[in-house]
Amino acid sequence: MTGPVPGTLAPVLIVSGTGTEVGKTVVTVAVAALAASHGRRVAVVKLAQTGEPPRPAGAGGHDPRARHPQPHRPHLEALSTRRLLAAGVVIGAWPAEPGLAERANLTDLAVIAGQPLAGVLPADAARLSQAGFLAAARAGLSPGFGGTFQDQTNCHPQ
């Protein structure tokens, strides 16, 4: 990873997912932790919270800019119409013992997204120690995110 050119805006990365509890927060923290470990300045902002009712003022927790009670599932087509490029597909909650469906989805997700598999993080990553989490992030994210993960699915969409 390289730093931004002085006087220019830093890169922005948007993490989106297919539903609730799919690992978006874990992926966000993993990318931020790796960037920080490489000496980058990092800021994480949650612009919206979906899939849970609004909380009363002062209820604690993170404070997104907007809350929506229904989950939103952004589609890749919506990103492309806004000329946003996908950095790749990262699985944010990979089970310790994946079944046939999970293994098939590993390739299918990259094909559907038209982007290579850029990482796989373990489902239990949020319960790891700080050092364990950083090691999992490094092993589970591709070099583009500061990690060492290499796509072994042999799926390289155009």
What does this structure look like?
With 158 residues, the protein is of the alpha/beta class. It has one domain (24-145): 3-Layer(aba) Sandwich (Rossmann fold). The protein contains four helices and four strands. The strands form two sheets. It has a two-stranded parallel sheet. α3 (100-113) links the parallel β3 (89-94) and β4 (117-122). The longest helix is centred in the first third of the chain and has 14 residues, at 24-37. Mean pLDDT is 77; it is low at 1-5.
End-to-end distance: 23 Å
CATH fold-level label: Rossmann fold
The fourth-level CATH homologous superfamily is: P-loop containing nucleotide triphosphate hydrolases
Shape: globular
| Strand line-up in the sheet with most strands | 1-2
The amount of helix comes to 25-40%
Beta-strand content bin: 5-15%
Number of domains: 1
Q: Secondary structure elements and their pairing?
A:
Elements: H1 24-37, E1 48-50, E2 66-68, H2 76-81, E3 89-94, H3 100-113, E4 117-122, H4 130-140
Parallel strand pairs: 1-2, 3-4
Helix pairs in contact: 1-4
